[in-house]
Amino acid sequence: MAMDAAMIEQLIKESLPDAQVSIEDLRGDGDHYAAHVVSGAFRGKTRIQQHQMVYQALRGRMGNELHALALQTGAPED
Amino acid sequence: MDNTVHERISQEVTDNPVVLYMKGSPVFPQCGFSAAVVQILSHLGVKFKGVDVLADPGIRQGIKEYSNWPTIPQLYVNGEFIGGCDIIREMYETGELQQVLEQKGVPVRA
Q: A 5-44 residues with CB below 8 A of B?
């Protein structure tokens, strides 16, 4: 059960069109990723809310097809 | 979600100041992400209750719905969901976790 990095990026950008997404395949196995997501939509949100927005974008894949996605989120610096 | 599962979780996170829903036990974590949070809490000398979700499929699914959070581990302090592994690690590195615990009256080793 693996997922392609491009697919992860695409799903995130569908929900958060302004997002800058960088994804790293941590082990090269298509199953353990780290993503850094920067979006204006995160402004004023708590970290939990920001991560929930990303999980929402992945539409239920997180914790299923996608075992590990280390997330770091933030709003763009002004 | 099953109401009784919801109630059990609600009771558990209210009765215990610090609860970690995890895979495996604090002594034998079964997942690297759970182990990382156990390590942080132990390093801070925080007393917590570990709940092994692998031992209870109802709780394993229920906790994800309870917090609207898709992954395990999940840390609760005084009934409030604080975060999963990434957030706890980030908060620990910035010192925020120690602050939150102290604000909530949980003793932390300096």
A: none
